[in-house]
From TrEMBL:
It comes from Patagioenas fasciata monilis. InterPro entries: DPF1-3_N. Residues 12-82 form the DPF1-3 N-terminal domain. This is DPF1-3 N-terminal domain-containing protein. GO terms for molecular function: zinc ion binding.
């Protein structure tokens, strides 16, 4: 009986550890994906962006209407950050009036 209980505890510990590894892998994968966004999907030709559709369990509230299990708060609208052309040295306008040095 003691070995069965010990085996069950070992199985639960292994299961919890596997779940934790899975959770951390998924979190890392989502973080890496968000750093690579936006990207052009080769199959559909659509530019993929961050969608903000994932909610945490703590955001979950009770259902308000009959048959509704949960409610979630609405996401606030976020303005996209614009690229400042003057800060990026590759996108600066060409300077005129200087001495252009062209080499043949």
């Amino acid at each position: 009986m003691a070995t069965v209980l010990h085996g069950r505890a070992l199985g639960e510990e292994f299961y919890r550890e596997a779940l934790e590894h899975c959770r951390s892998y998924n979190a890392r994968l989502c973080a890496e994906r968000s750093l690579r966004l936006p990207f052009l999907d080769a199959q559909t030709g659509v530019a993929q962006g961050n969608c903000y559709i994932w909610m945490e369990k703590t955001h979950r509230g009770p259902g308000l209407s009959p048959g509704q299990l949960y409610t979630y708060p609405a996401r606030c609208w976020r303005k996209k950050r614009r690229l400042n052309i003057l800060e990026d040295p590759r996108l600066r306008p060409c300077e005129r009036g200087g001495n252009p040095t062209l080499t043949p």
